[in-house]
Amino acid sequence: MSLAHGVRTVGILGAGQMGTGIALVSALRAKVPVLLYDRSSEQVTKGLSLMDKLLAKDVAKGRITDEQAKDARDRVQVVGSEAGLKGFRDVDMVIEAVSENLALKQSIFSSLTAELGPDAILATNTSSISITKIAAAAIPQGSNAASEDAKRSAGRVVGLHFFNPVPVMKLVELISALQTTPEVLDRTRAFAVACGKEVTTSKDVPGFVSNALLMPFINEAIMCLEKGTATREDIDTTLKLGMNHPMGPLQLADFIGLDTCLAIQQTLYEGTRDSKYRPSVLLERMVDAQWYGRKNGKGFYEYNNS
Ligand code: 3HC
Prior knowledge:
The protein is an alpha/beta fold. Helices cover 48% and strands 12% of the residues. It contains 12 helices and 8 strands. It has an 8-stranded mixed β-sheet, with helices on both faces. Strand 1, helix 1 and strand 2 form a beta-alpha-beta unit. Helix 4 crosses helix 5 and helix 8 packs across helix 11. The longest helix has 20 residues. The protein is globular, with a radius of gyration of 19 Å. The chain starts with 9 loop residues before the first strand and ends in an 18-residue tail after the last helix. The protein binds 3-hydroxybutanoyl-coenzyme A. 3-hydroxybutanoyl-coenzyme A binds next to helix 2, helix 8 and helix 10.
């Protein structure tokens, strides 16, 4: 069957909260076989158990049948650590969802370009890092960036930014690097639509549209707390009840992960040199203390993760 996105198998790199969610919507909504890889097998186990829980909940709520849940789960296969990125050799698209670290992403894209076939799309779920920089890392070592080979390698890199929790949030932001080809952009958009998402597009600027707007808002809330303007509860309640936000900004920061918020804010600040994006000292100190939010039980609030 010929699909507009042409993705017969997708590889998801990273089994954290984002990667797991992307694997789930790919298997359940786009109905595409998924290969899931994370260098931490513990993370894979956690991701698969979250997936099972979410599918069981959808069945219990009558949204999908038992059979649909089973089919979706059967579409997800784990790539073992011995295979590593080589396990993605035959996929038509990889979606990278590892932590927000430029050097890590560059090294991954440099390896992926060597492993995958020439028509495979290399998508990154980065929240803020330049897609153009990541695409440059996909150019084979020693190639001139203007060569056909380099243009082909970098041209298949694209930004595909999902939102947490992926199965619930309806949006995906699509970002073209300077090098991305129109065909790759169209196929990637078609894949996001097949995953049940509405797609907006953003230029490749730090934070794109979403985080260029969201992160100063979260940071301002943290600075309110830092200055003692109000308690954490009152800051969050103001936004929840006064503006109908589903979560207050401090709750949302905990939900996204304070380490991730800081990494995004640093990228915004370094990328724009605009002081409005400077991360608050309190956020930096909380990350120094390894208080990462909901994922490890302590952020602006405490969570029982057991
Ligand atoms: N994974 C999957 N599903 C989840 C979930 C998770 N981590 N957390 C909650 N859900 C599901 C619940 O299971 C429930 O599903 P159901 O309708 O099938 O029962 C549904 O979400 C609603 O959950 P609850 O009833 O428990 O709680 P709420 O009504 O408070 O909703 C929420 C939870 C959907 C997370 C809501 O509070 C919300 O929309 N918050 C804002 C989230 C947001 O802004 N996300 C974007 C963050 S920015 C981002 O991701 C970009 C990145 O670059 C930083």
